[in-house]
Amino acid sequence: MARDTGFPRADVENDFLRARRGQVLARLAAWLRREPDDVNIMLPFHEVVEALGMQGERRLGLRTVRLDSIVGSVDRTRDFDRRFRPTSARVRERWERLALAQRRGEAVPPIELYRVGDLHFVQDGHHRVSVAHALGLEVIDAYVTEVVTRVPAHGIRHRGDLIVKDYRRLFLERVPLPGEARAAVLLARPWDYAELGEHVEAWGFRLMQDESTFLDRATIAARWFHEEYEPVVGLLRQADLVGDRTETEAYLWVAAERYRLIRTHRWDQDVIDALRARRPTAG
Fold first, then answer.
1. How many CB atoms lie within 10 A of CB 236?
2. What is the pTM of this model?
3. Cα torsion through 209, 210, 211, 212, rounded to 10
């Protein structure tokens, strides 16, 4: 909690300097731990929405929001870090003016936020969020607009996570899986989604050739999941070929190995035995 000496003007000056020191120390700690460069950078709203695919928005009105859920900004990503500590003295005058009003108990208007999943992004009120953090508050009042996206926002912690989300969104446009199937198909590396998309499209092409009929993307996606993916994943579980990967990662690996080894798109015990013999060892 921020100290109160009884001299508000001196207190807000100390509040700002303490926040600046915290920001510098956080950068130093991240460097010493060799963390990614984006670990202390706030998330840019437009990049997040573009990666997830915007479907619409709706106004939720006045809400009380936890400060630790506010992780980004619409247009002010350079003036504050991920914890809304000032990154320079450029914002000091306005920051201290707002901090002084807060310490004196004056009314502070609600901020304006966008909500994407459980994450919040500041449209108006960056200094007020920063001051609230510095004063040790846990919540803040805000007018909230919720943004609905094609891909859920969970799992986003750093800017680099947006690459995976962007590739996943593109994959789901190529392979429009239904709800439960969509949640089951998970990959950690972004480029694997592109490879899996090509694999599903090739599977759908062979299916249309076999049945001599045209099938739309949604039909191919659903049939691939139920007729190919689920049975194969079941076989992989029984053969203990999943390991510490996701089931989708295991499926993608063995699908590529199967074709490379024996040039076939069918599954049988001989295929499983050949794949088990080539199973990579942990190291």
1. 20
2. 0.61
3. 40
